[in-house]
Specification:
about 0% strand, single chain, Heme Oxygenase, Chain A, about 350 residues
Length: about 350
């Protein structure tokens, strides 16, 4: 991924450090201290902070595919890991403030699945998919795809971090879900590659991270949350709950997105990604709810609250990002950030 433009003093100091050989990051540490000097901030303010969310996104990206021109030894730099831990604490604190653990004490896999289905069914957040199905313009659909590209081009990877942390029935369930996400080993069929095909069909750049400069903080926060949950063993329950909610809220919206694309005159080359998810995620939601999330709670009952919280966090943080997007469109504005020339 190419280096993006900075969005404030913390990301500027980070980007300046990353072009050097690994070493001290005193300037970034100082910038981070100043940025957080006022203490705890409202949760939505943290999710909307362009500088902090971009900084955390870049630090996580060192564990995925890396950044152009950046020495790969930075991935395990103790100084950067300390800075990342500070940013993670801010993000996790904001999500915990925003999202309480849902009520209920399910004990069996079926009870866990039932509670998760009830939780996702009761989600009353703004529906981006309904807007796309009925009202969105072609330009707004392209904006949506740009937003989603920062995750979809590495689709499933954050959840895969959980695999070595699981065993038994939940591990097998996660493997089953992820195998589908990765196209069951068939080149060109991973869901990330299918999404790239959608981007090409819409005339967009399908290169990894191409639109990072224009994607705003709330969308980055949604992706950062997945990386936070996936990269920490102590949060393995949260990443499994997140995946369950993610799958349970994907099939119907995917149908709406596909219908919106068809309404705007786009053909199968554009709708294939979402059409594929209508059936795949209808199956995945059953596996993720019962065998994965439910199986994990049966195997490790102490993770029940984390599983439920991870699911609720998925709905809340993704809902916040969706609300910001819809707010812009309904006010006649772009839901993207102004940025440097992407062709530069």
């Amino acid at each position: 991924m190419r280096r993006p433009a900075a969005r404030g003093p913390v990301s500027a100091a980070l980007l300046e450090a990353l072009v050097r050989e690994p070493g001290p990051v005193v300037t970034m540490q100082a910038a981070l201290d100043r940025a957080l000097a006022d203490g705890r901030r409202p949760a939505t303010q943290v999710l909307d902070d362009e500088d902090l969310q971009l900084s955390l996104f870049l630090l996580y990206e060192l564990h995925y595919r890396g950044v152009d021109g950046v020495d790969e030894a930075w991935e395990w730099s103790p100084d950067l890991l300390r800075c990342r831990a500070v940013l993670e604490g801010v993000l996790e604190g904001a999500i915990r403030e925003m999202v309480p653990v849902p009520a209920g004490e399910p004990r069996t896999a079926s009870e866990v699945a039932a509670l998760l289905f009830a939780l996702t069914a009761a989600d009353g957040g703004p529906s981006v998919s309904s807007f796309v199905a009925k009202k969105a313009t072609d330009e707004q659909v392209r904006e949506l795809v740009m937003h989603r590209s920062v995750y979809q081009l590495k689709e499933a990877d954050p959840h895969t971090w959980a695999l070595p942390r699981l065993s038994g029935r939940p591990k097998s369930a996660l493997i089953e879900v992820q195998a589908d996400e990765y196209g069951n080993g068939r080149p060109g069929h991973t869901h990330a590659e299918l999404f790239a095909g959608l981007m090409r069909a819409l005339g967009l750049d399908d290169s990894y991270g191409a639109y990072l400069d224009v994607v705003p903080a709330p969308t980055l926060a949604s992706v950062n949350m997945m990386s936070l949950f996936g990269l920490h063993r102590r949060l393995r329950g949260a990443i499994i709950g997140h995946l369950a909610a993610f799958e349970m809220t994907s099939s119907i919206p995917s149908r709406k997105y596909a219908n919106g694309l068809r309404r705007l005159g786009h053909g199968p080359e554009a709708t294939h990604y979402y059409d594929e998810h209508v059936e795949a995620d209808a199956v995945h939601e059953q596996i993720a709810g019962r065998d994965l999330a439910g199986g994990l709670v049966e195997l490790e009952p102490q993770l029940r609250s984390d599983v439920l919280w991870g699911a609720a966090a998925c709905l809340a943080v993704d809902g916040h990002a969706g609300a910001r997007m819809l707010e812009a469109w309904q006010q006649g504005r772009s839901a993207l950030r102004p940025a440097r020339d992407l062709a530069a």
